[in-house]
Amino acid sequence: MDIEKQITFLPTKDLNATTHFYKEKLNLQLFLDQGDCVIFRTCENAYIGFCEREFTFFDGKIILTFIVDDVDKNYDNLIKDNKLQVSKPIINSKYRIYHFFITDPNGYLVEIQKFLDNTTWKL
After folding, report:
1. Mean pLDDT across the stretch 36-40?
2. What residue ranges define each of the domains in the chain, with the CATH number in brackets?
3. How remote is the C-alpha of 21 from its chain's centroid?
4. I want to staple 49 with a disulfide (CB 3.0 to 4.6 A). Which of 39, 41, 97, 103 is the partner?
């Protein structure tokens, strides 16, 4: 798998307070504001995202997101292992992404995705 960038997504009940903390207190660059989710750049190819959700949506878990160029190729490689729980790739028009999820051995959600708007990731 050729990972181009990585995002760790965490749920928050107070997106405004969270945004203020990471932007003003930790001086992280606000990279993308999606309305109910914000993404901060932590270093060259790594990001942390917060989505305003009830914790039951994530079941209190984090989502590890890997940005790749070819979602379908990665999906095809992962479904070869019948023991893995892999969702089918779909387009999420709200966030303008093409993605699927897989569960790791710890129960964490791993999202394999590509932004449909390639300009999003060009600085």
Report:
1. 94
2. 3-121 (3.10.180.10)
3. 20
4. 39
